[in-house]
Amino acid sequence: MTVWRAPFEAALLMFAAVSEALRATGQPRPILVGGAAVEYWSGSAVATGDFDLCSPVQSELEAVMRDHGFVRPSGAGVATRGWIHPELALGFEIVGSVPLDGLVDRNRIPLIENILPDATFAILGVEDLIADRMGQYASGTAPDRIEQARLLFHLHPDLDRDYLERRVREESSGDYGVGDL
């Protein structure tokens, strides 16, 4: 039994398989960011509708995704940035080449192991994810993001608070800090 809801876990397992297949070609693993990272770190307390990925090798990642059964939806009224898989309830989208415009130290991108035998995937760390949520909140475009940031903060009491303070201040243009969580 896992802590995630079934559709998310199925998509997570597929992401791990795609990640491992891309790494096997000599390319870097994609990094899971956004709402799916929030869902992972919150144990599905926050649910997402898609998996946002960052990868510096987009065309190679897309080829591996196609090899795993992903297709781009097409037709009138369909956004073509994302990918869907016929066996998954969640879509996938490549949103950038690096997470958070490159402000994340690569050494702070954790690798999650043991989801599948011999499979590992990369995900945005909790501190950077909280900082991202606080930045979105501070921008005024996503007022609900502060609740996600607070939830993650309380679920993970062992955070690096000095790093978190710096990152929240960076993402919120100095308007917020750890004390606001």
Brief descriptors of the model:
alpha/beta, 6 helices, about 180 residues, six-stranded mixed sheet, 2 domains
Describe what is shown at a glance.
The chain has 6 helices and 6 strands. The protein is an alpha/beta fold.
Report on this structure.
- There is one protein chain.
- With 181 residues, the chain is an alpha/beta fold.
- The protein folds into 2 domains: 119 residues; 49 residues, no CATH class.
- The chain has 6 helices and 6 strands; from the N terminus they run H-E-H-E-H-E-E-E-E-H-H-H.
- Strands 3-4-2-1-6-5 form a 6-stranded mixed sheet.
- It starts with 5 loop residues before the first helix and ends in a 10-residue tail after the last helix.
- The mean pLDDT is 93.
List the helices and strands and how they pair.
Layout: H1 6-24, E1 31-33, H2 34-42, E2 50-54, H3 58-67, E3 82-83, E4 91-96, E5 111-113, E6 120-123, H4 126-139, H5 145-155, H6 161-171
Parallel strand pairs: 1-6, 2-4
Antiparallel strand pairs: 1-2, 3-4, 5-6
